[in-house]
Write a structure and sequence with these properties.
alpha/beta, D-Amino Acid Oxidase, Chain A, domain 2, 9-stranded mixed sheet, 8-stranded mixed sheet, globular, binds flavin-adenine dinucleotide
Length: about 500
């Protein structure tokens, strides 16, 4: 139903809260604050959501579908995993609340269940993550069942990449991300929030306190509190007032996905996905409204936030979808090319909390499942803005030592297994005498060399290692951070270590 609401877009000079960033995190927070009648709320962000992640998301509401060997291995990872679990419970209410504000012509929830397939093209990593997924479902006593892959509606891969196993996970569906964002905006307009179609050039400081924002056209808005929720651009914006602040570095996880209209064959009725694999979020198809399917997604840690799409990524995604999901996808008509930057932190964990500059709050670092987690995070941040206890663990405070969940040796082995997964999935070929063991040894040596050059004991994830050793700029930035970290050992709070716990 389209509601005739006029948006409040006039630029005020003052507000109780200015939220910078109009992705899922910013909009859900604005809604939560308006719901609580927490004063005047302004959201600043460009209408096209340039380079943002939320507009490109498949918006799978996946908790167990996202599980990897790391998810429950340490207390910190488990705490992170349980954010998704708790966020999941909120979605039925979110959908009921937003549906009346949607004008897309089809339900916001586009799928109510998932099928996770295990095929042989992604190497050993798939099997490991698939087994951890089942273990996690059992541990949390959630329903799932083994299903013959042939019985999954729409799933018609090529014979040589057919799935050997599959599980059905009821309750892990998906929403139309773009529809949810649009509905949130209509609801915010109705509730009286102000939305400004611009970007913030810099934050404004008075003494040590942040007192407002300056827009690109020079207009200034004074604020009681400023929340930075600009996704992969969050660190850069914070740095406009706090150049030396010791934040966990942010990296952009550039992702590409396609929206395509089916022209033949049986449509998918559920999310169908592989486990997370090869430095990325797994191959998936998500029903996206009448006749339409979302094909996702690539992930490439890059030095600069941008909206470009790599031709190689377009090729991977098209090829993998045709091979591994449904051969008929070759005849799909692409109606939307989606690209966005996941807000990735150096340690892979969110950064959510007050910064040492009074009046400044940071809300980002959600990586692969920020759309899903947004309603819970909104409640947490609204509580903290109102001086109430938060609902997530304080270990995700942005000013921290990077959270440790692995040893260097484990990191190297993870890098090896992800590299092999990417090697086989891309169809790379080596000389016949080069066995998988040789390949593994090659990747192991590369990873070890990268760690030796960085001279660090801190074991970051395989995706960060991949970006550090693939880019001089990225590698140097990480090296500088690790150097500073050694020097600041006593001033930052160590958190979450727990290496070796809970295995
Ligand atoms: C291809 C892809 C697929 C994904 N699939 C899923 C999925 O299935 N499920 C899931 O839960 N998550 C998924 N994610 C991850 C999820 O999208 C992110 O974790 C989440 O959306 C991050 O939201 P955000 O609001 O923090 O950032 P963003 O969505 O990036 O929003 C930030 C906004 O701030 C704006 N902005 C930037 N700088 C400024 C400035 N200076 N002033 C004002 N505004 C500014 C940007 O234009 C943007 O609109 C996916 C991401 C990608 C890229």
């Amino acid at each position: 139903m389209q509601r005739p609401i006029s948006a409040n877009t006039e630029k005020p000079t003052q507000a109780d809260v200015v939220i910078v960033g109009n992705g899922a995190l910013g909009l859900f927070l604005a809604e939560e604050l308006m719901e609580r009648q927490a004063g005047s709320v302004v959201v600043v962000g460009p209408n096209d959501r340039d380079a943002g992640a939320s507009k490109a998301a498949g918006a799978m509401l996946g908790t167990f579908g996202e599980v990897t060997a790391d998810s429950l291995r340490t207390p910190a990872s488990r705490t992170r995993f349980e954010i998704g679990l708790r966020a999941h419970e909120r979605w039925p209410d979110v959908i009921n609340r937003l549906e009346p504000y949607s004008s897309s012509g089809f339900p916001l929830q586009t799928a109510t269940e998932s099928h996770v397939v295990l095929n042989a093209i992604g190497a050993e990593l798939d099997t490991i993550n698939f087994e951890h997924m089942i273990k996690a479902l059992d541990e949390y006593d959630k329903p799932w069942s083994e299903i013959d892959p042939k019985d999954i509606p729409g799933f018609k891969p090529r014979t040589d990449t057919r799935a050997l196993r599959a599980i059905h996970v009821p309750g892990e569906g998906a929403v139309d991300a773009r529809g949810v964002l649009a509905a949130l905006e209509v609801r915010l307009d109705e509730m009286g929030a102000t939305r400004i179609n611009q970007t913030v050039r810099k934050l404004i400081k008075d003494g040590e306190a942040v007192t407002g924002v300056e827009l690109d056209d020079g207009h200034i808005i004074e604020a009681g509190a400023v929340v930075v929720a600009t996704g992969a651009r969050s660190e850069a914006l914070v740095r406009t007032v706090a150049e030396d602040l010791e934040l966990v570095p942010m990296i952009a996880g550039l992702g590409f996905a396609m929206l395509a209209q089916r022209t033949s064959g049986e449509p998918f009725q559920s999310v169908v996905r592989t486990p997370n694999r090869g430095f990325a979020c797994g191959l998936h198809v998500v029903p996206a409204g009448p006749g339409c399917e979302y094909l996702g997604a690539t992930n490439r840690l890059v030095d600069e936030v941008s909206s470009v799409t790599w031709v190689g990524d377009a090729r991977y995604l098209a090829q993998y979808a045709m091979q591994q999901l449904d051969e008929q996808i070759a005849q799909h008509e692409v109606v939307g090319w989606l690209s966005g930057n996941r807000p990735v932190t150096f340690d892979g964990f969110p950064m959510i909390g007050w910064l040492p500059l009074p009046g400044l709050y940071l809300m980002t670092g959600t990586y692969r499942d920020g759309f899903h987690c947004a309603p819970l995070l909104a409640q947490h941040v609204a509580n903290e803005l109102q001086g109430q206890p938060g609902v997530i663990d304080s270990m995700f405070n942005p000013v921290r030592r990077p959270i440790e969940i692995r040893t260097v040796e484990e990191s190297i082995e993870e890098y090896v297994i992800h590299s092999l997964a990417a090697w086989f999935e891309t169809g790379a070929e080596a000389a016949p005498q080069m066995t998988t063991t040789h390949l593994a040894a090659y990747y192991r040596a590369r990873a070890r060399e990268a760690f030796d050059q960085l001279g660090t004991e801190y074991a970051f994830g395989p995706d960060v290692l991949w970006s550090a050793e693939g880019s001089l700029v990225g590698g140097r930035r990480i090296a500088r951070y690790l150097n500073r970290l050694r020097g600041s050992a006593s001033t930052l709070t160590p958190v979450g270590s727990g290496i070796g716990d809970a295995r």
